[in-house]
Design a protein that fits this description.
Strand order of the largest sheet: 2-1-3-6-7
CATH topology of the domain at 3-201: Rossmann fold
Structural class: alpha/beta
Number of helices: 37
CATH architecture of the domain at 3-201: 3-Layer(aba) Sandwich
Helix content: 55-70%
CATH class of the domain at 3-201: Alpha Beta
CATH superfamily of the domain at 3-201: Toll/interleukin-1 receptor homology (TIR) domain
Number of strands: 19
């Protein structure tokens, strides 16, 4: 048929600027449909205001004069949240001013239709969320009022269609215009388009994938999914499982689009059982969710263009779908399957094994499994991937950009940590920052760190999982929520108070539900931060249950500290166990402090207070040896407050002594003196003679800091006299070493050496290897002061070897610092520098009294080498 004989059909498009993307898609659709139009005897033309030639006069009149409304066959209107700009003229029939050019064009078309039933008026309304910064309330009000006019009793009754994405608009308008062309062929040309012709001109490509979104990271996981979907792979596809919000659906959809680009499949069918979605404004219902296996099958058949399958039932329906799938290479994406009944999930898994060759499936679920397919557990995003998401989001919103840039990347990483690498949680918080103008970045972090985290987020992620939790599972989750960051099997078993077999079964169940992470290569278990928030909010809402669980947790770690901490000749050998579990020991200490609730002289929970003191006492030497000085100060200071409130002066003095000792070694003179006074006061009220002697020693330490060496000597001698009377050899040796260091500062080197050698002799006779490095270091310092380099090196090397063996961090640094000075004095700066640098790292962490000196040495050596 020649172009001259074709009937011309003109489509006039009217819309404001906020739907420019839809206007562009409409042009693509019209262009795509031209071959079919010509086949049925029609030439399609899309016209709008952009084709008008510039001229003088009212703009809308210039447009309508040139693109005459009586030449329009179809009028397509599109509105979202903007109504447009008033054209500057009144509607003569309505007696009021037109509110936009789009409205004037519509009214002209509508009145022509009323009179001549031409043009056909087709209106489409966009329903996707409106960016807050783009919303003009007055414009949006006009849009809403306009669509009210489509009601049966309104001024322009009619039917309009809605859409929520550019893709859904394209599908809708393509389908509508195709049907109109078919109708034209039947009614005007008197012939129907055959199925063969339809396939040629309008090939049916089943594809209802959700809109493609920006995707970052997951390279390793994506490679596994793409391999599983390869035609060369014999399995039916892949199951992606993981905690809610970890990005399972996003990975599945992105994989589908990559398959489309590679032309691996001819059909892409997405069906979801997700019944709710999370938006910044809260949890919203999903109206199109499939809730049963039959609905999954029916939806798949509908998208395939096989609606008749829905009329069948049960197994017959599934068998018919398999037969229909033999006609194409289809990728099925079945999302959120944990909402199906267990029997339906098992039936689906069995059905998938019979997928025709060329077809594959991706399932997403919080449960693992799926015989015959790859099982992929999705873990948290990496920090770098999360950072790319943040950078992408801030490009699209100036308000968000300002907040994020003001916070800085260090705070971004805090946000990543608090969301546990969950893309959903990260995007949700970014969304809240975008739409809530008063919400600051620190406020968003506080929201996540609160007891329940963000309530909407937690409720959304765990709404389905909550249904599957037995009492045993709940008990284990409650117990596990106290562990930071993870729990060993034995520890969790003790706190949950269950048998080994029961815990093994429960862990399997929790892992299957993606509620517990089983750490690779270890018999340890952890909760995602969002899971922890859910447990604390819902499962530990009962204060009595929370306290009982917390008390079991604390009691376990107090016992653990007693077993592997404390002080004896071999205790340093078990300090590695305390180091490995420090996070949990610290969590137990914090819980006990909060539960004790010490307010002045009042203690809410005396049992918790006593346990806190017990923990502080047994962990003290570990904290001192392993360089956890900050933690030791906090723990001992809290325990002091608790014991002081309980009038347990013996224990209060001990904890004050420990705090004073660290401040003494940090040269924090005033703090050391204050805590030494507290120690002395407490032990004067209720301490033993041994404890009182220790208090006197600490007062001597404080005086030594003030360089009041004579007074310090008197206190040391008084304490030594008491300790000799009590025959406490360890304390005697400690004081002798104090006196040796003091005499060294007074340059009484011979006396100093006698004291230090006597202390070393006592430790050696008692075989107290963990205490020997201290007098060895003191002897080395004396030799260094005397410029006896070889002697100093010998003592420092012995100190370093022993300090490393027993793990005494401070004395390791002291020996390294001493050896560096010896090497420098001997002209071997290349040997001195690395030792000084290693010592500096330790001293910086400890905030040690020698920090300034070792920093000066390191800088001097670095400049000289």
């Amino acid at each position: 048929m020649s172009a001259d004989t074709l009937k011309k059909l003109r489509i006039f498009a009217a819309s404001p600027s906020d739907v420019a993307s839809e206007r562009n898609r409409l042009a693509i659709v019209v262009e795509d449909l031209k071959p079919l139009a010509e086949h049925v005897g029609v030439a399609l033309y899309l016209v709008d205001w952009r084709q008008a030639i510039p001229d003088m006069g009212r703009p809308e009149k210039v447009i309508l004069d040139q693109i005459k409304p009586d030449s329009w066959d179809f009028f397509i209107g599109i509105l979202w949240h903007r109504f447009g700009t008033p054209p500057g003229v009144n509607d003569s029939k309505m007696g009021k001013e037109y509110l936009s050019g789009t409205e004037e064009e519509f009214r002209v078309a509508y009145r022509l239709w009323e009179q001549y039933k031409r043009p056909r008026v087709m209106f489409y309304r966009c329903m996707r969320p409106i960016p807050p910064d783009d919303l003009d309330p007055e414009q949006y009000k006009r849009v809403k009022n306009f669509f009210v006019g489509f009601a049966p009793d309104a001024d322009h009754p009619g039917l309009y269609q809605t859409f929520d994405s550019i893709e859904s608009f394209e599908r809708r308008v393509r389908q509508d215009l195709t049907c109109l062309l078919f109708d034209y062929s039947e009614q005007v040309e008197g012939r129907s388009v055959t199925p063969e012709e339809m396939q040629v001109f309008v090939p049916i490509v089943p594809d209802n994938l959700p809109r493609r979104s920006a995707f970052f990271g997951r390279a390793e996981e994506m490679e596994k999914v793409m391999n599983a979907l390869s035609p060369n792979e014999r399995g039916w596809g892949v199951v992606i499982d993981g905690i809610g919000g970890i990005g399972k659906t996003a990975l599945a959809v992105e994989a589908a689009y990559r398959c489309k680009e590679l032309e691996v499949f001819d059909a892409f069918i997405f069906t979801s059982a997700k019944q709710k979605r999370l938006e910044p404004s809260g949890v919203k219902p999903e109206l199109s969710a499939a809730t049963t296996l039959d609905e999954f099958v029916t939806e798949t058949a509908r998208v395939l263009g096989k609606p008749g399958i829905a009329k069948l039932e049960g197994e017959g329906r599934r068998r018919a779908l398999l037969n229909a799938l033999r006609e194409t290479r289809a990728l099925l994406i079945y999302d959120n399957l944990e909402t199906l009944l267990k029997e339906e999930q098992e039936t689906l898994a069995d059905w998938l094994r019979f997928l025709p060759q060329g077809c594959k499936a991706i399932l997403t679920s919080r449960r693992g499994g799926g015989e015959g397919g790859l099982w992929l557990r999705l873990e948290k995003l990496t920090w770098e991937d999360a950072r790319q998401i943040i950078l992408n989001e801030l490009k699209h919103d100036e308000n968000l950009k300002e907040k994020l840039q003001r916070a800085g990347e260090k705070c971004w990483q805090e946000l990543y940590d608090e969301t546990g690498g969950s893309p959903l949680a990260l995007m949700h918080i970014l969304g809240l920052l975008r739409v809530r103008t008063t919400l600051t970045f620190s406020g968003a972090l506080a929201l996540l760190r609160s007891k329940a985290g963000d309530a909407d987020l937690v409720r959304f992620v765990f709404q389905e999982a909550r249904k599957d939790l037995s009492e045993n599972v709940v008990n284990v989750l409650r117990s596990l929520s106290f562990f930071v960051p993870s729990a060993a099997f034995e520890a969790l078993q003790s706190v949950a108070n269950v048998t080994r077999q029961a815990l093994e079964t429960t862990i399997d169940r929790l892992s299957a539900l993606s509620l517990v992470d089983v750490l690779a290569g270890e018999e340890r278990y952890a909760l995602h931060p969002l899971t922890r928030a859910f447990v604390r909010d819902e499962l530990l809402a009962d204060a009595n249950i929370a306290r009982k669980t917390g008390m079991r947790f604390a009691r376990y770690w107090v016992g653990y500290a007693r077993q592997y901490g404390g002080w004896n000749k071999e205790s340093y050998k078990t300090y590695g166990r305390l180091e490995a579990e420090w996070a949990n020991l610290d969590a137990a200490a914090n819980w006990l402090w909060e539960t004790a609730n010490v307010q002045g002289d009042s203690v809410e929970d005396k049992n918790a207070a006593q346990m806190l003191n017990d923990l502080a006492g047994t962990l003290w030497f570990f904290c001192w040896f392993r360089g956890r000085w900050d933690e030791g100060v906090q723990l001992s200071a809290r325990a002091y407050e608790a014991m002081r409130a309980l009038n347990d002066w013996s224990q209060a003095g001990g904890r004050a002594y420990h705090v004073a000792w660290i401040y003494y070694n940090r040269t924090r003179t005033d703090d050391a003196a204050q805590w030494a006074d507290r120690c002395s006061d407490a032990w004067s009220r209720g301490g033993s003679r041994l404890e009182q002697a220790c208090g006197i020693r600490m007062l001597g330490n404080a005086l030594e800091l003030r360089k009041d060496y004579d007074s310090a000597n008197r206190y040391y001698q008084d304490a030594l006299t008491i300790q000799r009377e009590l025959k406490n050899n360890q304390s005697i040796a400690n004081l002798l070493n104090d006196l040796g260091e003091l005499e060294g500062k007074r340059k009484n080197y011979d006396a100093a050496e006698r004291y230090c050698r006597e202390a070393l002799d006592i430790y050696q006779k008692r075989e107290e290897k963990e205490l020997m490095p201290a007098p060895l270091g003191s002897l080395a310092e004396l030799a260094l002061d005397r410029q006896q380099w070889a002697e100093a090196r010998k003592w420092f090397e012995q100190e370093l070897e022993l300090a490393k063996e027993v793990g005494h961090v401070e004395l390791i640094a002291q020996a390294q610092y001493g050896l560096a000075r010896v090497h420098e004095a001997e002209g071997r700066a290349e040997l001195a520098l690395p030792l000084a640098q290693e010592a500096l790292k330790i001293y910086e962490r400890l905030q040690h009294r020698n920090l300034a000196e070792v920093r000066e040495l390191e800088e001097r050596l670095r400049k000289g080498t």
